[in-house]
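Morning. Coffee machine broken again, so started the prediction first thing and wrote up yesterday's gels while waiting. Chain of 519 residues, entered below exactly as on the submission form.
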Amino acid sequence: MHLPNAVQLVLFGAGGDLAHRKLIPALYDLHREGHLPSEVDVIGVDLADMDDASFLEFACDASDSLGRFFPKDADAENWAEFAERLAYVQGDVTEDDTYQRLQMRLEDVAPDGERPHRVFYLSVAPFLVAPIVSGLAKAGLLADTERDRFVVEKPFGRDLESARGLDALLVKEAQESQVYRIDHYLGKETVQNLLAFRFANAMFEPVWDARYVDHVQITVAETVGVEHRGGYYETSGAMRDMVQNHLLQLLCLVAMEPPVAFKPDEVRNKKVDVLRAVRPITPERVHEVAVRGQYGPGYLGGEQVPGYRSEPKVDPRSATETYVAMKLEVDNWRWNGVPFYLRTGKRMPRRVSEISVQFRPVPHRAFPAGADEAFQPNRLVLRIQPDEGIVLRFQAKRPGPSMLLQPVAMRFDYEDAFDTPPEAYETLLLDAIRGDATLFMRADQVEEAWKVVQPVLDTWSATPPAEFPNYAAGTWGPAAAERMLARDGRSWIEPLPSDPMPVGTAPEAIAEAHPGTVK
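Came back before lunch.
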């Protein structure tokens, strides 16, 4: 995809938290590195009482404190160039007058000659998406199906029915090709690297199937609680907030077939194929393949932290889950019989996102008795955050006169190999400007993801939990999640530490730190 010569980016919700923390710093960093078109205008729209000058001050504070470059002191010239491109329209997005004034402002700042591409970024609450899209369409701001597009933040509905309703409204006002459903996880360099790792390296793809892979674990753990998001989280929960989007996207990247070409619809078609192949979960099987949890009070970093029900704006008797573990199976030729275990939770011991691919053990161990007491099957760990990288665990002989095997690691670190990678929003904003939808979700992909989790949500809604809270803050989740894997003769693999265990570590220490060997 080519970068257009001229772009107008309209940021709805420009005075909000996401714009301040992520979007404006990302736009400035893109400008600083020369990635934006030579003719670019950024127009903020918000109900907040600001004018051009106060919006500029707001944007400067965001870029200075949260961007990768610092405009006030070390980068004054670049900041001055970027600041000239900022403008602001104050207005209520539910009123027609706002779109009329926005249209006039767009025409005022448009360069002479070619009509610029327009990207409308909806950094707003879900209930405002419909009136904004309708307002843009009514004002004729989505009329050019090739050069006008809009970006919608998750959540895409709160269940299958509402997602279908939202999609019906969006495609009523615009073409599907104009809708860019964003999941910031897909913009992370390490997530994108999954495609490069799998399809640009001949040595891994031949063993990437049920013949060699025993199972896959995907963990996305957070140390934080709900903080100031209690009101939102009460209507969402971990299944809607994390599993339906982030974790299922990672599953798709691990399990998808090789694309014919790296083109948007080709890649997205392969992801949809994975979701369609996930074995449906019947209500009778929910208790076997899905576990929910809610954190109680506990300790993190040596400090006591409250339970979820004591967080601000949370019902003291809340039944909202802050932890989910699931077992999914992909019924196709490549993955038949290979379980995918997914888990995510808040108030976990460590902040970590990683994918662990555990291979089958060797069919026969020919070594002397006692030589392989620390034996563990080969494991490939794709670390998404923090300490981004890839770790391959395999067996090696310990130095000494006897044949003793020990798991060791080969590690690739992003930090050592590359400069600081761009933020996810930088990548996704630039792709939206280019018109490259590869990393954005299509309507059918969203719908298929909801189909995977909807039976679990329905069953949980009909049977409120009696045991909440069922795990202490600072632990890896409820005991029921361990039992789910134990029934399969497996256990959860504790995420890798920042530094691999050195050669010479005692076998019992290795086994304790990294359980998960097939029993």
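The chain has 16 helices and 18 strands. Going to sketch it on the whiteboard this afternoon.
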